């Protein structure tokens, strides 16, 4: 198993690039310790905390139960104790409810995937970061690029094995497996539909239309 370049890019963006990068074998700094929530009025009077890279440290909106549950996994990941981090993260997940907590689960799992050079774990982590709804706009492109690279790799493997008639891993509820040909055509159709939706939103903002 290896580490994808996109996963490293995501880790750098969500963890903050630091000179300690090399000590993690290609990852970046560990997720920041979970802090007690700061009242908004008090926070407004305090300067923003800085990560080692000089970027403002992200504040997470966690319940007390989420914070207590995730702290052991975070501590183990910071110590590069991947086995303990994996076990602690599994134990913490039943307590995770909010978007920020779900994002932290993905962030910790990505650290584990990079530390163990396990692509399957990295892929799961990227999917969790996207699904959490708490990823920052600056992270979304790297997360999307990672999904594209994984899809391209899966397509290449299927084509090499069975060509466009390669069957899907998961069958249809009615007609058996999908073919790779059907999947690719369906994806073109879906992209065209959603790009059209995005264009309608843009037109509603500035009124400009294409030719």
Structure in words:
This protein folds into two domains: 5-138, no CATH class; 142-206, no CATH class. The protein has 211 residues and is mostly helical. Strands 1-2 form a two-stranded antiparallel ribbon. The longest helix has 27 residues, at 180-206. The radius of gyration is 20 Å and the shape is globular. It is built from eight helices and two strands, in the order H-H-H-H-H-H-H-E-E-H. It starts with a helix and ends in a 5-residue tail after the last helix. 60% of the residues lie in helices and 5% in strands.
Query: What characterizes the major β-sheet?
Result: 2 strands, antiparallel
Number-wise, the strands total 2
Helix content: 55-70%
Kindly provide the radius of gyration, computed on alpha-carbon positions and rounded to a whole number of angstroms: 20 Å
* Derived structural class: mainly alpha
Terminal Cα span:
48 Å
Query: Rough shape?
Result: globular
Salient structural properties:
2 domains, 8 helices, 211 residues, two-stranded antiparallel ribbon, disordered N terminus, 5% strand, mainly alpha
In brief:
By secondary structure, the chain is mostly helical.
Layout of helices and strands:
Blueprint: H1 5-15, H2 40-44, H3 64-78, H4 82-92, H5 99-115, H6 119-132, H7 137-162, E1 167-172, E2 176-179, H8 180-206
Antiparallel strand pairs: 1-2
Helix pairs in contact: 1-5, 1-7, 3-4, 3-5, 4-5, 5-6, 6-7
């Amino acid at each position: 198993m290896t580490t994808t370049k996109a996963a490293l890019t995501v880790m750098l963006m969500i963890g903050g690039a630091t000179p300690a990068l090399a000590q993690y074998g290609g990852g970046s700094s560990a997720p920041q310790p979970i802090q007690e929530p700061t009242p908004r009025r008090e926070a407004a009077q305090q300067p923003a905390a800085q990560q080692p890279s000089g970027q403002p440290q992200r504040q997470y909106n966690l319940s007390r139960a989420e914070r207590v549950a995730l702290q052991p996994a975070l501590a183990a990941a910071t110590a590069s104790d991947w086995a303990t981090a994996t076990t602690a993260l599994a134990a913490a997940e039943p307590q995770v409810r909010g978007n920020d907590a779900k994002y932290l689960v993905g962030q910790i799992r990505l650290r584990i995937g990079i530390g163990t050079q396990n692509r399957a774990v990295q892929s799961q982590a990227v999917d969790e970061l996207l699904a959490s709804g708490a990823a920052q706009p600056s992270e979304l492109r790297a997360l999307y690029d990672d999904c594209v690279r994984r899809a391209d790799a899966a397509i290449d493997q299927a084509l090499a094995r069975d060509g466009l008639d390669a069957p899907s891993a998961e069958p249809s509820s009615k007609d058996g497996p999908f073919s790779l040909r059907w999947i690719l055509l369906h994806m073109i159709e879906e992209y065209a539909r959603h790009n059209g939706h995005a264009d309608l939103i843009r037109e509603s903002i500035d009124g400009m239309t294409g030719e």
